[in-house]
Design a protein that fits this description.
Helix content of chain A: 25-40%
Largest interface: A-B, 70 and 71 residues
Number of domains of chain A: 2
Radius of gyration of chain A: 21 Å
CATH class of the largest domain in chain A: Alpha Beta
Keywords (chains A, B): Hydrolase, Metal-binding, Zinc
Oligomer: homodimer
CATH architecture of the largest domain in chain A: Alpha-Beta Barrel
Function (chains A, B): Catalyzes the deamination of 5-methylthioadenosine and S-adenosyl-L-homocysteine into 5-methylthioinosine and S-inosyl-L-homocysteine, respectively. Is also able to deaminate adenosine.
Cofactor (chains A, B): Zn(2+)
CATH topology of the largest domain in chain A: TIM Barrel
Mean pLDDT of chain A: 96
Structural class of chain A: alpha/beta
Low-confidence stretches of chain A: none
InterPro entries (chains A, B): Amidohydro-rel, Deaminase_MtaD/DadD, Metal-dep_hydrolase_composite, Metal_Hydrolase, MTA/SAH_deaminase
Strand content of chain A: 15-25%
Family (chains A, B): Belongs to the metallo-dependent hydrolases superfamily. MTA/SAH deaminase family.
Shape of chain A: globular
Chain lengths: 431, 431
């Protein structure tokens, strides 16, 4: 079905930061086939026309770091020291995670992401075939990786086999809706030999690699003590760092680390909400962005955030860099919007999304800007970035397919998901 | 009309942090007259019963620092250096503010605050009789102060006269819905003699005093250069600091300053969103709270925030203190909830609000927690603080009066307010 959206403000997130007022956007065969002012009789070329007066179209958000099924652990334990939280709360509960739990937990995350305007996301966790199943059903774009941990040796290779199995089953390349990446968890849960092996396999199949990198000062201290070098250097030595690498966090990075990230064209994913809540530290993203490193944005999992709200993450990213760099011009509107859209698409390897332009995939959202917090209307982009609320997302379109319409999810059974998740959470937490 | 709310989770924000599950709350003559489990035939005692299954009742938020009419300047200019922003953008526009603008701008702010669950707030600005008029009409509780600036001398006393006129016209004491405070803007816009005069007048009528205090490092540096002491010490020397004082920001305070604030029992209002966006710095609120200082929360005006979302402010306050103190246990759930409710009520001098308890004013909100981001339900307070969205506020009740029902504002004409504000903003910004 071809579709024409009309009379909206259109934030393109393109190079020039263009906003088209009273714009029209045509969709055909999953792609944007018209962008501009409404012209006479344009509506006759489309099967359906949606009137969007007082509303704003923009590219869907790309949540570049998440662990979808961890919604199951959301609000189970907060305000705790990291190791106490992990060992006494999170790990025991994760131990009880089943395939069924992963499916419903992932579905809950996708439901929340779509409602908040996310059209593509990146994941690393267990039971990823179940997450892939949920993604295939609901229509979200996803880059999925089975979390890899271990020393080297045959007994630890089963996770890599699982990852490759996932790759064969679901990877559809940059044109497809689901991509599969290789996801070594971190330098503190994978031996150097294991990291090297993962790098080798990734190179062979030209897969993206994602890894948690320099998330905390402790990670760096321990890595230097054990291996005599920083996590970034260790990952580089293992051959893991290149333009297909997605490095989450990069909080505790020094000048040499950042130079390596730049040189290798690594994609860095900033997760300000998680870094703040867990007291991990503050990533120097302004510095890295100024160096030309591609910075994307992510929420991290819901148990360390505790929601998957990209609009909140955008604002937090900007405000945090402003206050920490003592510069109110840091991470201005256009820059954070790109971090949350086109930069994320690049990081995940989706080549035709993140920008509104003719020929690109029709991955977009419609925000109802007829609300008090968007008034007065001096600047639509500022209004969304600094005043907006994710609950105002009314339409979500992915590859030209209507996933949400007037706030109602079309591809998922919301009530069922909440019911199943609650049942599973009660089972997991009772004992 | 008496009213019974039933089958809700009730977050009391009392000393013990109690949450009543499947609770009932009765309202009569503006006060809470029943709190507990639903008992047989309880509904017969009330004129109206509202069923709130899967919903959560909590005290309304107290936004303890705001400049309501500054919504008119929202998103007019962002991502700028402070002085450039103030002198080239904000001041020229403020110069064109009229009484009519103040009325509609204040109405917009109140509309937004009520929709997001704020039931009481504090204001300092111009044309405050118009703001008082808007507050009287819409039903919000307010402590209002005419912003005072100047040297000493008869020619500068007209603002104090205006403030006293406002006091006589609108101040109703801690039992009434509108209170009037005396509001010297800051130590850099008022001379010491002027501050002393305001302190004297405030003492005579036992009024609250609000002031911007130590908002930035520059303010402190300039004050020390000019007067040989910090803003806190200068304000104290002028006799401005006591238990009725509301000190906004307190970002750049040292140990001696904090000790003075503690000793004088000053109420400090933390505005993390504004402090971050304007790159003012990070207030040591955890330290001050640990010292026993009463810390309230505010959004500041919409042109430096850029919204009036207290739930966002709560989360930002907690996350910012966690990351900056490198301690994920900093400002835990119960503490930030109190900052946003009962501490704010104390700061503003409203003695019977901020806590849900029999005998207190029925100032409360209902949040629809049947949304993906509140699932699974392990902990209702955590869910609201760390995952919640202000758009989920469905009911707002102030002094027992229904101000919002099922998301619809009863006491204001939302469409009219947006229309008038837009018209005024276009007039102010055109030239």
């Amino acid at each position: 079905m071809s579709l024409l959206l009309k009379n909206a403000s259109i934030i393109t997130c393109d190079e020039t930061g263009t906003v088209i007022e009273d714009g029209a956007l045509g969709i055909r065969d999953g792609l944007i086939d018209y962008l501009g002012k409404y012209e006479n009789e344009l509506h006759k070329k489309y099967d359906r026309v949606i009137e969007l007066k007082q509303k704003t179209i923009m590219p869907g958000f790309v949540n570049a770091h998440n662990h979808a099924a961890m919604t199951l652990l959301r609000n189970y334990a907060d305000d705790m020291k990291l190791m106490d939280w992990l060992f006494n709360k999170i790990f025991p509960l994760e131990d009880r995670l089943t395939e069924e739990g992963a499916y419903w937990g992932s579905s809950l995350a996708m439901l929340e992401m779509i409602k908040g305007g996310t059209t593509s996301y990146c994941d690393m966790y267990m039971f990823m075939d179940k997450t892939a199943e949920a993604a295939a059903q609901c229509g979200i774009k996803a880059s999925l990786g089975r979390g890899l941990q271990g020393e080297s040796g045959d007994d630890m290779d089963y996770r890599i086999s699982e990852a490759l199995e996932l790759y064969r089953s679901f990877h559809k390349g940059s044109d497809g809706r689901i991509r599969v990446n290789l996801a070594p968890h971190s330098v503190y849960t994978c031996s150097p030999a294991y990291l090297e092996k993962v790098a080798r396999v990734a190179r062979e199949i030209q897969a993206s690699v994602q890894i948690h990198l320099s998330e905390t000062g402790d990670e760096v201290t321990n890595c230097v003590e054990k291996y005599g070098m920083s996590p970034v250097k260790l990952a580089d030595k293992a051959g893991l760092l290149n333009e297909r690498t997605i490095a989450a966090h990069c909080v505790a990075v020094d000048d040499e680390d950042m130079e390596i990230l730049r040189e290798r064209e690594v994609n860095v994913v900033h997760n300000p909400g998680s870094n703040m809540k867990l007291a991990s530290g503050i990533s120097p993203v302004k510095t890295m962005a100024d160096m030309g490193i591609n910075i994307a944005l992510g929420t991290d999992g819901a148990s360390s955030n505790n929601n998957l709200d990209m609009l909140e993450e955008i604002r937090t990213a900007s405000y945090l860099q402003k206050v920490i760099s003592k510069d109110p011009t840091a991470l201005p509107v256009d820059q954070v919007l790109k971090m949350a859209t086109v930069n994320g698409a690049k990081a995940l390897g989706f080549e035709n999304t993140g920008v509104i332009r003719e020929g690109m995939a029709a991955d977009l959202i419609v925000i109802n800007t007829q609300k008090p917090w968007y008034y007065p209307r001096y600047n639509t982009k500022s209004a969304i970035v600094y005043s907006g609320n994710s609950s105002d997302v009314e339409y979500v379109i992915i590859d030209g397919r209507l996933i949400m319409e007037k706030g109602e999810i079309i591809t998922m059974d919301e009530e069922r998901i909440l019911y199943e998740v609650q049942k599973i959470a009660e089972r997991m937490s009772s004992i």
